[in-house]
């Protein structure tokens, strides 16, 4: 494994931060100062500022999902999000939650099945924040009406129960933020359809306390920090 990748996995720092630490002479390999990020390691002892590092057993990743990728490990029609990860990271990874094919934004990946289950459990009621682009502009009165209906819960076609209370924040007449606490099939699109509007763009900004980095371009990823992992 490349040394900069090992540092990223062991500490949660970004690849650029790992390269900076190497350049600054903060990393040793079996006691030898190493500055090359392309150096490869096997069983050597890696230290950062004198502290030994080890790669965590479980891996937790935040991916900025592009449109056109399916949230699955394999598919015969569409490319899968795992293809956006390096080959050596794909083994055992699963999607902790899903985004539709045309939806972009924050998607969590892990090989920790229990953590993934906690995140997806209805009992957890983990908040998810979406930026939603609408086909029909909202007047102030219409926005207030939709906000009230979402707070009370709406009836989705084919569902027995109302949706959990959700919060709407209007950014522009055609762009809003919506926070939901469950993950029904195509839920955001179906919620707006239930109130007579149509979603033309959907982007997830946040899952629980984990926010999508502004600097993370579509298709890019990073490891979660220990604090982010513990927040689920």
From TrEMBL:
UniProt KW RNA-binding keyword: yes
Pfam families documented for this protein: PseudoU_synth_2, S4
Coiled-coil features, chain-numbered ranges: none
Keywords assigned: Isomerase, RNA-binding
EC class name: isomerase
InterPro entries membership: PsdUridine_s_RsuA/RluB/E/F_cat (IPR042092), PsdUridine_synth_cat_dom_sf (IPR020103), PsdUridine_synth_RsuA/RluA (IPR006145), PsdUridine_synth_RsuA/RluB/E/F (IPR000748), PsdUridine_synth_RsuA/RluB_CS (IPR018496), RsuA_PseudoU_synthase (IPR050343), S4_RNA-bd (IPR002942), S4_RNA-bd_sf (IPR036986)
Ranges where the RNA-binding S4 domain occurs: 1-61
Catalytic reaction list: uridine(516) in 16S rRNA = pseudouridine(516) in 16S rRNA
EC numbers for this chain: 5.4.99.-
PROSITE patterns, sorted: PSI_RSU, S4
SUPFAM superfamilies the UniProt entry points to: Alpha-L RNA-binding motif (SSF55174), Pseudouridine synthase (SSF55120)
Record's function text: Responsible for synthesis of pseudouridine from uracil-516 in 16S ribosomal RNA.
Recorded family membership: Belongs to the pseudouridine synthase RsuA family.
Protein name according to UniProt: Pseudouridine synthase
Organism: Oceanisphaera pacifica
